[in-house]
From TrEMBL:
The keyword DNA repair does not apply. Pfam families: Methyltransf_23. Keywords: Methyltransferase, Transferase. GO terms for molecular function: methyltransferase activity. It comes from Chitinophaga tropicalis. InterPro entries: SAM-dependent_MTases_sf (IPR029063). This is Methyltransferase domain-containing protein. One of its GO terms (biological process) is methylation.
């Protein structure tokens, strides 16, 4: 996975190590379900493209306020109403960490359903516990019950569903995000020193989280992400 950038395959010295390492570890388990002509919805820079073996890879993203598309690899733009691609034309769909940014999510799901062939699969991840980001386009968080019901109500069958992260990991990730954005980012000393302090701090915190998560009982009433495979009947 060395071809995936550190933003999506982070080291233990980064503040978002817990969330992103869980995501890539679990996505890789299911990439073999993606095949044929594939749509990457919310593709951005297509960070996982090198790990996916499909016949055709088409990236779609939404051009709007709150997110820069500089240096990204978008093939088609979504206007928030219609995906400008033909119906029943994709064998598989990938959408990672996108659902929380879509205000009219049911309309978007209807469009994804339209462009998928009967029997096509969609691999989805979206967050449950995460700080607000990419303002003002951050609007949705779903419980496990809510996201599964949403997919079923929009014509999809749930083939696989899983929560990513334990309650310990979720709370520790929120704490580290706070330390990163509200404490360390405010330090204005010499840049190499700041980088060293940041790397040391998050390495220690991530190792501490590993130990506590190992030592304490596992619960997932609080968790970090959903991952699921859905199918169009």
């Amino acid at each position: 996975m060395s071809t995936v950038s550190r933003n999506f395959n982070p080291s233990i010295s980064q503040s978002f190590y817990i969330t992103r390492s869980l995501l890539i570890k679990n996505l890789v388990k299911h990439f073999d379900k993606l095949h044929g002509r594939m749509l990457d919805f919310g593709c951005g820079s297509k960070p996982y493209k090198s790990l996916i073996n499909v016949k055709e890879y088409i990236g779609v993203d939404f051009e709007g306020q709150g997110h820069s598309h500089v240096n990204e690899q978008i093939d088609v733009f979504y206007d928030g109403k219609t995906i400008p691609l033909e119906s029943n034309s994709f064998d598989s769909v990938l959408s990672t960490e996108v659902f929380e940014h879509v205000f009219n999510l049911e309309d978007m799901l209807s469009e994804l359903h339209r462009v998928m062939k009967p029997g096509a699969v969609m691999l989805v991840t979206c967050p449950f516990l995460i700080a607000e980001h990419e303002a003002p386009n951050d609007c949705n968080r779903y419980t496990s019950f809510g996201i599964k019901n949403l997919m079923k109500q929009n014509g999809f069958e749930i083939v696989h569903y899983e929560k990513l992260g334990t309650s310990v990991q979720a709370q520790m990730q929120i704490f580290m995000s706070y330390i990163d954005s509200s404490v360390l980012s405010k330090l204005n000393f010499f840049k190499p020193v700041r980088k060293l302090v940041t790397s040391f701090t998050f390495s220690v915190l991530n190792l501490w989280c590993m130990f506590v998560n190992w030592a304490l009982p596992k619960r997932q009433d609080a968790f970090l992400n959903h991952i699921m495979i859905c199918q169009k009947p």
